[in-house]
Amino acid sequence: MAGLINFAHRGASAYCPENTMAAFVRGIELGANGIETDVQMTADGQLVLIHDELLARTTGSPKLVKDATLEEIKRLDAGSWFDPQFKGERVPTLAELLELVCGTGVQVNLELKNGVVLYPELEEAVIAEVRRYGLTEQVIISSFNHYSLVKCKLLAPEIRTGILYGEGLYEPWDYAGRVRADALHAFYYAVIPEWVEQAAARGIVYHPYTVNDAATMRRLVGMGVAGIITDYPDRLAAVLSEA
Q1: What per-residue confidence (pLDDT) applies to 144?
Q2: Catalytic site residue 207?
């Protein structure tokens, strides 16, 4: 399907350590025209791309992201946990990813991780960085914290926003209208053809997550979703090439 966004979830996270430059580069190599990643803030106010609030799982540090400086985080090995061949991979900054996609047309889905930790002025900092690189048309900001999405839209109406949610949100297209969101980032179980159609009639698109098997990808493509978030961008690229 032409135009569908193939979002590599935390980069090509099935093949590389998640949320590293290696994963982002590999995702693009495997056919992704979109990157999904997670944004948090260090103790010194720097924006880094990592999923967990705690550094332990991917770097071995016992600290929370919010309690470590960028310099401390940059000394950590974010690759060995996945495979020894990735030893020395670092936790990247948002700026590093934005530099990678500049001039490429690759879309970037920035998930603000501001539910467990409420980072002060995270929205302002992310928007400033996106604008600094002139990438407002290539970025969509998503979050499970919908208050944060409303704030983003007030600060930067030109940047798309996507509502992250699981199952059971009633008439989500109407809710999206209330919070001025552009997309529904639903758990893929919460996507059926009638809902995709209802949303599209109101100018709202679906970007379901996290879809890793080809049969489900085909089903969602057939429904008319606008993007799919996957750990396997190569599998989605193959499905899209069948059309």
Answers
A1: 98
A2: no
